[in-house]
Structure formats: structure tokens, C-alpha cells
Amino acid sequence: MNNVIQVFLPMKKLSILMFTALAIFTAQACSSGKGIRVYDNKSSLSRPSESLPISKEMIENEITYELYFTLEKNADCIKIDILSSATVNEFSGKKESLKTFFIAEQIIDVSKFSNEKTKYIYSEMGRNFDQGWERKKDITICTDKNDPISALKSSTPYRLRFSNFQKLRCDFEVNVQADCRVFYHEKIPETNQPGNKP
Questions:
Q1: Structural domain that includes position 15
Q2: 73 or 33, which is more confident
């Protein structure tokens, strides 16, 4: 009987240790996914550089492109990323990814409050690089409940300015994730009318 007890106790302790380790592992796995948001919709637009509007407001005095977008409905958050690539071997068609820098801006209509010819002003919402040109792949912009101006509204147009600092022909892919559809425009839409949605 003593022998049975001596064997049973270590096994019980081992089971407790294994259960504790499993619980810790599960908690860590769950916490690692905390804060990761999944959006209902991802709207993408792919264009070659020669078909994109060129912005008058350049990034680092380099050729800069621009696109506008609107939201189908008000949103809490949106996630933006812009990719670019260029063909490095015409024979094989091999492409190389390029670093893309972009700025997201809210367009504010000030025509009712200004006596000048200025109709719109642009308010920066975010960018994927810092002062040292350290770049992030994407950015997330959310409505600040304490700042009404930051609200992501369907009635507000937004602008994306982007550049990879290359003068060669390249291809861009713009991606905006949201809990609603996203419409792209080549110029500021006068109303919240649907634009290009692939």
C-alpha cells in the first residue's frame, strides 16, 4: 500500500504542474492576440504610376502621387497600407518591392468660413514614417471620442499622398481596411458619391 501511495503522489504533482504550464501557455497565447482587429472589408486599388494623379504637395521634394477615398458609412477605425514594386528584369518579369512612404489626410471644407479662395484645407491624420524616416508597413487611424474633428465620417473625403522616391515606372497597390466599403476617387468628390471600388 505504501508503494502505491509513493507512486501516486509524484504523478499527482506532475499532473498539477502540467495543468499549470498549460494554463500559462494558453493565457499567453490569448494575450498575444489582444488588440488585433479584424475588419469586415478590405478595399484595394492597383494602378501603374503613370495612371496616378501627381500631387502638388511632394514628400521630401520627390515625385508624389495622390488618391482620395470616402467611406460608405461612419467608422470607428481604418487601417491603411500602400505597396509598390518595379520590374527589375524585363526578360523574366521579376519584380522588386520598394519602400513606400505615405501620409493620410482629412479634407476639411472651409468655404463657408473663409472669405479667401481657399475651399479646402488638409489635416494630417497619420503617416507611416517618422522624422528619421523609419517606416511602418501600415497605420491604423481611429476616431477619438474626445475630438469630434477626428471622427471618421462617410460625409468626409480623405486624401492619401504617397511616394517611393523612384522616377522609374512602378506599380502601386493601395489598401484600406474598414467595417464598411471604401470608394476611391482621383479628385475630391463634391458629394459622397461612389467612386472606384474594385
A1: 1-36
A2: 73
